[in-house]
Amino acid sequence: MIYIILLFGIMIAILGAMIIIKPDSIYNLIRNNSESISIHIIAVVVRLILGIALITYADSSKYPLALKIIGWLSISAAIILGAIGRTRFKGLLAWALSFTSSFGRVGGVLTLLFGSFLIYAVV
Hints:
By secondary structure, the protein is mainly α. It has one domain. Helix content is 87%, strand content 0%. The chain contains 6 helices and no strands. Helix 1 crosses helix 3 and helix 1 (2-21) runs antiparallel to helix 6.
């Protein structure tokens, strides 16, 4: 389980760094694929896998309570994203992408910090 969390942490940190350096590349990728059902499925499955991994490994980590809370939030987000349907998901995606010009790099910094926290918590 630790390897799954490490992998997610590394991927999230890299994504955050990419957003800080060149935010339009990531946001345009999401924008261009927002009509695809695969982005919806990926959003649900990734959150579900990460949530289960965090809850399972939490007791062996440096921050068990934090990882359990993040894990349950991740699973809750997966359930909600799965339940809202395609139309609402696309609307949510469009709404979130509307903030990228103002807060894109801030989101990148927060993403980098979150990924780094996951790595630190399990190493």
